[in-house]
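Escalation from tier 1.

The customer reports that the assembly of two entities below gives different structure tokens on two consecutive runs. Tier 1 could not reproduce it. I'm attaching the input and our single run for tier 2 to review.
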Amino acid sequence: MSEQLTVPTMAELMAEGKEPDILFWVGSAGSYDDRAKKITKAFVKILNKANVNFAVLGTEESATGDLAKRAGNEFLFQMQAVMNIEVLNAYNIKRIVTCDPHSFNCLKNEYPGLGGNYEVLHHTQFIKELITSGKLDIKNSDYNGKRITFHDPCYLGRANSEYNAPRDVLNTLNATLLEMKRSKSTALCCGAGGAQMFKEPEKGDKDINELRTEDALKTNPEIIATGCPYCMTMMSDGVKVKEKENEIKVMDVAELIASSQGL
Amino acid sequence: MNYLPNIIFAIILVVGIGYFVKNVKKLFRNIKLGKAKDISDNKSQRWKNMAMIALGQSKMVKRPVSGFFHIIVYVGFIIINIEVLEIIIDGLFGTHRIGLSVLPKSLYGFLIGAFEILAALVFVAVTVFWIRRNIIKIKRFFNAEMKGWPKNDGNIILYFEMVLMTLFLVMNATDLAFQNAGTGGNVISQFISPIFGDNPETLNIIERSAWWLHIIGILVFLNYLYFSKHLHILLAFPNTYYAKLTPKGQFPNNEAVTKEVKLMMDPDADPYAAPPESDADETPEKFGASDVQDLSWLNLLNAYSCTECGRCTSECPANLTGKKLSPRKIMMDTRDRLEEVGKNIDANKGTFVDDGKQLLNDYITPEELWACTSCNACVEACPISIDPLNIIMEMRNYLVMEQSAAPMELNSMMTNIENNGAPWPYNQQDRLNWKNE
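Tier 1 run:
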């Protein structure tokens, strides 16, 4: 792709004697996973469009340790956390935004106890803030009247009680928002959480992402929206298993906003 | 005067309450086998939660049908128990319906009338519960862990309540003095009364029998609690009070680990230094939990509070897709093991003697623990704020940090994080490559 993304790193800004208003925590999935990288770029396009003074850590970023903690390795988690906190504090970071609810939860709730105190936002919360403050103007979109169902990521929804931000953002698209029977506080997990993403499931009669995809398909959607790179993988796989990939798209909220504005 | 009934009554009362107190003490001792955990913060929020969730049943009604009938049984049981006060006074002092002579007739009539209506409603609600468990066979009452005692326990409680409500109404229906007192309180019992005829002697015998059986039944039920899932009627209150207030996604950071990590990261620390003398006798902190004593007292209170309703399991993504994990079973196993440890302590004069068993493997298998997605659906679903996820995570900590027994794929994922700061084997120097792709 050739379109020009402006992605300053903290090191670059520091060299210029500048400070960003907010740090974009890209996360491991957003940095390396091919599908998640598209979400990262879509979000950067939004940041660029809204002229947000942001920066990334780039090669100075390392895994939050969230996965290690959920997998039971508290030691590795704290090692990662303490290292990251050293970097973040050295750069005097105050505010962080991330597209990954797992990083969001970990940075927001588990870093303070280890000396890392920041205001942490999920990207849907930040996009909502950009829209409300008028920095991002949502003009007529291609999603007018499209049937969209939103799958709540566990670590945004139940874990941190944020159900409205992604829905408020989606509502600016004038789409038809459909709720699955299990949604918000009773939403079913996509199956990736608790480090399940990285292992084969235990013996059972079905995969969790298949069951969750069935929930979504019951709303007869054109688009399944998510706000998490792991949910993205699980739901995309689920749609493929159901052989619906030609009719139904799985998209992150940031991708929907970016593409609606021709970004 | 014949004081025999009064004396018998007093003995039954003392024995009934005494045995209950003895078991409550055991309950406290067992809960205290758990690790210390300071929960003295945010008192006002905690009282509020208890008022809303336990007293106000706010999470019960999330499922409207069972919630509605549960509230009837709950309110009915609490209010009807006011009548027990009169029974105890009558029993101890040989009076008959002391309320009739000390309260205004209309007030007494109102009270008993309310009790009778509630008793009838409780009977109906309990019957509905019985039908849900035994005729409609609602799925969550038939998981693997619900075979045998747990299934019987559920039904025994319902039978108890049916019998107690029936005895209360029969007692009123056959009490000629009450029926003829004109209190207006016999709203339900007046329709039952004709069944028993009008022979005063027969009626008196039935009334006395119902009266005695009623109070004995209540005392037996009280003592049944300790052995039953029905303990929730008491423990739901402390359980909701002490429940986690921080965001559900926030897992506690292990302080023992923090100490070690800080030491490792300290550039001034001497890696070859001998441990300080004073630490020589201390056993190093065990990470995570393999048995009930490694869990916190709150985890153990959770286990005793669980009434096995299965709302957690019915929302668990792992369980819904046929995996072995059931959050309810995690709670039941924890309680069963805790009871076993408690009995071991009783049998060995106050100390626990290793029985070669533990919570891990003997009750909860790694297969169950690794099936959890940590999604918090179980925690959200619990009507009294039990946290099965915390027990699962504690046990994962033990498996990984004490036994290095994570599934192989997770070990590779963690090795990647250690080596290159990402769960995949990609170079940290490539973290920003997406920018130019």
